[in-house]
Amino acid sequence: MYWQKDLECIDRDHLKKLQKDRFASTMANASRSPYYKRLFSENDIGGTLPLDLIADIPFTSKQDLRNHFPYGFLAVDLEETVRLHSSSGTTGNPTVVFHTSEDIEAWASLMARSIYMTGARNTDVFQNMMGYGLFTGGLGLHYGAEKLGMLVIPIGPGNSKRQLWFMQQFKTTVVHILPSYALRLHNVMEESGIDPRKDTCLRIAFIGAEPHTEAIRKKIEELLGVDAYNSYGLSEMCGPGVAFECVCKDGLHLWEDEFYMEVIDPVTGNVLPDGEEGELVLTTLKRKAQPLLRYRTRDLTRIIPGECKCGRTHRRIERIKGRSDDMLIINGVNLFPMQIEKVIMGIPEAGNNYIIEVHKKNYMDKITVKVEINENYFNGTLAELAHLEKKIEEELKAELLVTPVVKLVEASSLPIHEGKAKRVYDLREMEQGGG
Q1: How far apart are CA 244 and CA 229, in angstroms?
Q2: CB atoms < 10 A from the CB of 363, how many?
Q3: Cβ distance 417 to 180 under 8 Å?
Q4: Max CA separation in the chain (angstroms)
Q5: Alpha-carbon span 422 to 419, nearest angstrom
Q6: 95-96-99 Cα angle (round to 5)
Q7: Most buried by CB count within 10 Å: which residue of 111, 171, 355, 396?
Q8: What is the CA angle 250-345-209, rounded to 5?
């Protein structure tokens, strides 16, 4: 049941002591980087600041990483590093994260711990459909699965028919896949006459790298006949493996022996108590090459109060609701794309693929949701189609408190993504002032 029982079930008092000791080492290490050396000096912060006073340290942001590209956060000599990962840099300097061999080994251990927690074992065949390269999603689980002793198929994303061929030939039992691509892959299975419950050996899916609702998880489980587990991570911390679901599927255990978490009010920056929703802020406790202090993830969640039935003592976070910078403001009303997905996935006649368009008409925001029809549930008349559109509009209005326009479209007519799905098209800026 446990990969590292001494750490996973550690007594909370011992965990706090471990965090304090590791935070002290992290502070000393961080002070070697040009960025934190200057930050500590400007804010009169000594290298021995106790964990209880962590709020004295200013937040670190993604923009700070960009502004101090490429070596501003590096805390070791360059020859001690063995790998870097990087964002695309399409909007300016990329964010670069360096790793020592010790960092890579710690990351692999965290991933092995997470994978084992779901019931996967060294007898499983693991098909990794996530991207490799600068993106951390593929490599993170790859090394963790190998450490656990699984047979790994590093196939990467896309080419659905090839995915299915490998899946059947080598009797894949565990996959790592984007939620949107899992739904797309099921469509290809249907087209190919493959019943995943009868014609494959699938039993576990790790899903992550894009926000998704509980309804999407259940749909993936129902369609593919698997147990689907939510994973969470970000390349600035290491990649996937920061938090993971156990078999109870009641929140994600955030590994507090390696990360110190706070949830803050995204506007005031004040730390919120357990149970209140806000922005997740993380501090690395073990990273050597590039320690980060109070890093604002922009991800919105809350710490779930209470203990988990699995016996692990690391606190759980709720699935990520969205990013604070993903929030849409429609005529003064705040909403998140996942609220729309939650409604759509609860309507059987609606398909799995949808997009959200935001327009500016007569100086007012207008939101249009285009949803593919689920042909297995709907084969009605035009009048019935209009009735269904109205029904979805009413349900969205009740959830969002704004009135969207819903347009039902033919199955497979919206853009298909074999990487991360693009759901939101905010066209207001180009339409500003249009009427």
Answers
A1: 8
A2: 10
A3: yes
A4: 72
A5: 9
A6: 150
A7: 111
A8: 55
Distance CA 412, CA 431 (A): 28
Angle between helices 214-224 and 337-344 (to 10 degrees): 40
Pairing label, strands 350-361, 364-373? antiparallel
For 35-91, how does the pLDDT look when each residue is reduced to its tens digit (9 = 90+)? 999 999 999 998 789 999 999 999 999 999 999 999 999 999 999 999 999 886 656
Q: Would the CA dihedral through 274, 178, 419, 82 be positive or negative?
A: positive
**Nearest CA among 116, 162, 115, 99 for reference residue 2:** 116
pLDDT digits (tens, 9 = 90+) for 266-325: 999 999 999 999 999 999 999 999 999 999 999 999 999 999 999 999 999 999 988 877
- 152: Cβ contacts below 8 Å, ≥ 6 apart: 126, 128, 142, 145, 146
pLDDT for the residue 174: 98
